[in-house]
Design brief:
By secondary structure, the protein is of the alpha+beta class. The protein is about 55% helix and about 5% strand.
């Protein structure tokens, strides 16, 4: 079985990221194409079919937000055992949707994607909630915090009280929960957070600079990405021996940042010059 060509995945990812209504599941699946070279069209289809199958096992319109939350917990958390543990933070596959669907283990944000995609297919009023440091899932009217029900897929779909959610935020940030943190997360924000997690995982492992570069390239395909990603890409290319490619990225970043920070632009241009000098 052979996987996708990297250029084709980048093209499809960029096209979907710019769609009027980006497909969160597809974007998450395409992220796995470089780390898992065996991922191909059949595997993408199988993952989407699995999400559809799980949605088909939910009861028909069980009731209000809390009833939906309970139904998802009973199906995904209890019957199928989707959950997470501290060790999952050390595994790249915990950030790859197709692997999470097989292992039924993952990071909070990937497990939340499973919850959201399964529930959405079944007609639930569902959305991701990007609490600082811990992604969860919300059920109910997005504009009505009083009726909102939060669940923690990492903890098997445990329904969270207001104090539970506040404790999660306080543990991550040292500050209390704010109502503004409870708004639905947009699909592209979810994707960027997943890519940030993958970059952090790979940057802590210099031997996996291939994965870090892949995550940066996909993040650059998302509209409104941070300009500093170009600097990070340049550094990674130089690290991987592509001195000319790295220098070009560094020079482009210097041109972008020059209007607001001449000192940084000059420093980055010196890095680009040093990268080109490595060819001599």
């Amino acid at each position: 079985m052979s996987g996708f060509e990297a250029a084709e995945v980048r093209r499809r990812f960029a096209e979907e990221a710019r769609a009027e209504r980006p497909d969160l599941a597809l974007l998450c699946l395409l992220i796995g194409a470089e780390p898992d070279r065996e991922l191909d069209e059949a595997a993408l289809d199988a993952a989407q079919i699995e999400l559809d199958r799980l949605a088909g096992e939910l009861p028909y319109r069980p009731g209000g937000p809390r009833e939906w939350a309970v139904a998802l917990r009973e199906l995904l958390g209890e019957r199928y055992g989707f959950s997470g543990a501290a060790a999952d933070y050390e595994r790249l596959e915990s950030s790859l949707l197709h692997r999470v669907l097989v292992r039924r283990r993952g990071l909070p944000i990937l497990l939340s994607v499973v919850w959201v995609e399964v529930a959405r297919r079944a007609g639930a009023p569902v959305y991701g909630v990007a609490l600082p440091g811990h992604f969860v899932v919300g059920f109910g009217p997005p504009a009505d915090v009083a009726r909102q029900v939060l669940v923690d897929p990492f903890d098997g779909g445990r329904i969270l009280s207001g104090d539970d959610a506040d404790s999660l935020v306080t543990a991550a940030t040292g500050a209390p929960l704010e109502p503004s943190m409870l708004v639905p997360a947009e699909p592209l924000d979810v994707v960027m957070r997943i890519l940030n997690n993958i970059r952090s995982w790979a940057l802590a492992r210099p031997e996996r600079s291939d994965v870090a570069l892949w995550a940066v390239e996909l993040a650059l395909a998302v509209p409104s990405h941070p300009a500093r990603l170009r600097y990070e890409k340049g550094q990674l290319l130089v690290q991987r021996g592509d001195f000319v490619g790295g220098a070009v990225e560094l020079e482009e970043y210097a041109g972008l940042v020059e209007v607001v920070d001449e000192g940084t632009a000059e420093r980055v241009r010196k890095e680009a010059f040093a990268a080109r000098a490595m060819l001599n």
